[in-house]
Amino acid sequence: MFAPSIHLPRRKTRTLEGSPWVRWTLVTVALGFLAVFLVVPLVAVFSFAFQKGWEAYLTAIAEPEARSAILLTLMAAVIAVPLNLVFGLAAAWLLARFRFRGRALLLTLIDLPFSVSPVIAGLIFVLLFGRQGWLGPLLFEHDIHVIFAVPGIVLATVFITLPFVVREVLPVMQTQGSDEEEAALTLGASGWRTFLRITLPKVKWGVLYGVILCNARAMGEFGAVSVVSGHVRGVTTTLPLHAEILYNEYDFAGAFAVASLLTLLALVTLVLKKYVEWRSEAS
Amino acid sequence: MAPRSRRHVLPGFRLSLGLTWAYVGLLVLIPLSSLFLKTFSLTWPQFWETVTAPRALAAYKLSFSASLAAALANVVFGLLVAWVLVRYRFPGRSLVESLVDLPFALPTAVAGLTLTTLFSSKGWYGQYLEAWGLKVAYTSVGVAVALTFIGLPFVVRTVQPVLEDIDVDVEEAAATLGATPWQTFTRVLFPAIVPALLSGFTLAFARALGEYGSVVFISGNMPLRTEIVPLLIVTKLEQYDYAGATAIAVVMLLASFLLLLAVNLLQRWSHRRLEARSRA
Questions:
Q1: CA distance linking residue B216 with residue B116, whole number of Å
Q2: Is the pLDDT of residue A267 over 60?
Q3: From start to end of A119-265, where are the E strands?
Q4: A269: exposed, middle or buried (C-beta count within 10 Å: 0-12, 13-18, 19+)?
Q5: Distance (Å) of CA A40 to CA A43, B115, B139, B183, B231
Q6: B188 and chain A: CB distance < 8 Å anywhere?
Q7: Distances (CA, A) of B9 to A195, B12, B15, B272
Q8: What CATH code is carried by the domain that includes residue B267?
Q9: To the nearest 10°, the Cα dihedral for B183, B186, B191, B196?
Q10: Tell me, which fold does domain A51-282 have in CATH?
Q11: What is the C-alpha separation between B46 and A34, in angstroms, rounded?
Q12: pLDDT, greater one: A8 or B139
C-alpha cells in the first residue's frame, strides 16, 4: 500500500534474491506459517461468534453482564490511558532532555511492567491492598475495597500499561533535539507555551502511537486483571474476563461473541497504528 | 515560572523529575518492594521447601522448556518472515506487514480461546493433527504453540530494520569475490543480524516465561503436567497462600532477571566480535 517503490531500483543488483524456485519456496513457507497462526485464527473468532446466528450474537453482547463488562473495560482504559499519557510526556521530557543521577534506575523501573509477568503485576497489588496485605487492615477498617473491586482493576491496568507512551515518545524526542525549544525560550516564550506550541506538535505522532498501543493493552489485559478481579460477575469482570467465564461455562458462541469485540479492537488498533506510521513517515 | 536551575537551559526539570519519580515510586517501586518484603515473612527452610516442591519444579521445567521451544520457533520463522518482507515483493505484502503485529494487539485471552478451539480434538486443526497422533490442546505442545503465537512479532520486528539497513555493496562485493548466495548469506548477512536475532529471541523468551492469558486455556492446567509457573502463582493465591505465591514469583523474577543479564552480556560480546571483524 505505502510506497514500496523506494526499494525497487535496488532490485536488479541484489545478489541474494536467489533463484525463483528459492524465492517462491520461502514466500510460500512464510505465508503458510502466517496463515496458520494469524489469518485462520482471525477468521475463526468471527466464524465461532456467529455460529448460532446474528440474533444469538447480539444477545450475547447486549445482555446486562456483557454490557457491564464493556463499561468496566472502557472505564479502566479511560482512567489508565490519560494518566499514562501525562506521565509519559513528563517522563519522556525528563529522560530525553536532562542527564541526572538515577536516570538509568528510573529507565529500568519504567520498563519493569513490560518485563514482569502480568500475574506478578496482579500479585503485588494483592499483597499491598488485599485483606492480608500491608494496607489491608487499614482499608478494611474504613470499608474501602481495592482488591476484588473496581479500583484494583484500574490500578493493575495502569501498572501494566505504564511504559507504552514513554517508550514511544522518548526516542522521538531524543532524535529531534531541542533547538526549536531553546529558540522559543530565548525569544521569551514561557516553559508551558514552549511545550504546548513546539514540543507537543513535534512529537504528536509518537504520542498518538503510544496512546493507541496503551489503549489496546488496557482494554485487552487479562492476567493482571484476573488476579485482582475476584471474578464477581457483572461487577468486576472486564471483557476478557467475561469471555473466560462464558467459555468455562461451555457457552462457546457467547464467549466468541465477546472475543470478537476484542478482536475488532485489535484490528482497529492495527489500522490506526499503520495510519500513524504512514503519517509520521510522510511528515 | 519557577526559577530555572543554572545547569539546565530547558525548563521543567524539577517538575518532570518530581512527577516521574512520584508516579513510578507509587505504582512500581512500592508495590514491587511489597513482593520482596513478603518473602521475608517466610523462614529460609520454608521458602526453600515452597520453591523446590515437586509441583513447582514441574512448573519451572514446563515454563522454561515451552518458552525456549517457542522462542526458537520464533527465531526461525521470524527470520524467514522478516527476510521475505524485506527482500521480496508479492501480492498482499503490506497486509502481511501489518498483520504481523496482530499478536501484540490481540488480547491474550482471545488468542487462548481461539487457539484452544482450533487445536481441540474436534477443532479445525485438531481433528487432522489427532488423526496423525499429535495431541496439541491440553498438552505441553499446546503451551508451546500459544507461546509461539504470542512471541511471533518480536523477532520479525527486531530483525527487519537491520535487514533493511544492510548495504547492497556488501553483498555485491561478496558476489564479485565469487561467493555463492548461500555463502553470502551465512558469512556476510547472518553475522550482521545475529545481535538483532538474539534480542528478538530474548524478548520472545522473556515474554513467554511470564505469559498467562493465552496459556491457561490451551494447557488444561493439570498440576505436575501442564501447569506453568504463572498459573501456579494464581493457584496459590486462590488458596490464600500469599507467602507461597510470592516465593514462586520471586524465583520467577530472579530467573528472568538473570536471563536478561546473560543475554545482555552475550549481545555485548557479539557486538564487540562484529566490530573486531569489521576492523580487521
A1: 10
A2: yes
A3: none
A4: buried
A5: 5, 10, 21, 36, 27
A6: no
A7: 14, 10, 14, 36
A8: 1.10.3720.10
A9: 140
A10: MetI-like fold (1.10.3720)
A11: 47
A12: B139
Chain B residues with beta carbon closer than 8 angstroms to that of A118: 210-213, 230
The range of the structural domain enclosing residue B100 comes to 41-279
ipTM metric: 0.88
Residue B97 lies in a domain: yes
Please tell me the total count of domains within chain B: 1
Interface of B with A in 124-153 (CB under 8 A): 124-125, 148-149, 152
Name the H helices within chain B. Answer: 13-24, 30-39, 44-51, 54-87, 93-99, 102-105, 108-119, 126-131, 140-165, 168-176, 181-183, 190-210, 213-219, 229-238, 242-279
Is B46 part of any domain? yes
pLDDT of residue A176: 87
Annotated domain spans of chain A: 51-282
Instruction: Kindly list the distances between the CA atom of residue A177 and the CA atoms of A185, A195, B138, in Å, as whole numbers in the listed order.
Output: 14, 13, 52
User: What would the pLDDT profile of B213-252 be if each residue is shown by its tens digit?
Assistant: 999 999 988 888 899 999 999 999 989 899 999 999 999 9
Closest alpha carbon to B109 in A113, A245, A212: A245
CA A62, CA A242: separation in Å to the nearest integer? Answer: 13
Selection from B95, B189, B77 nearest residue A14 by Cα: B189
* CB B99 within 8 Å of CB B137: no
pLDDT of A31 higher than 70? yes
C-alpha cell, B178:
565469487
| A194 chain-B contacts, CB cut-off 8 A | 11
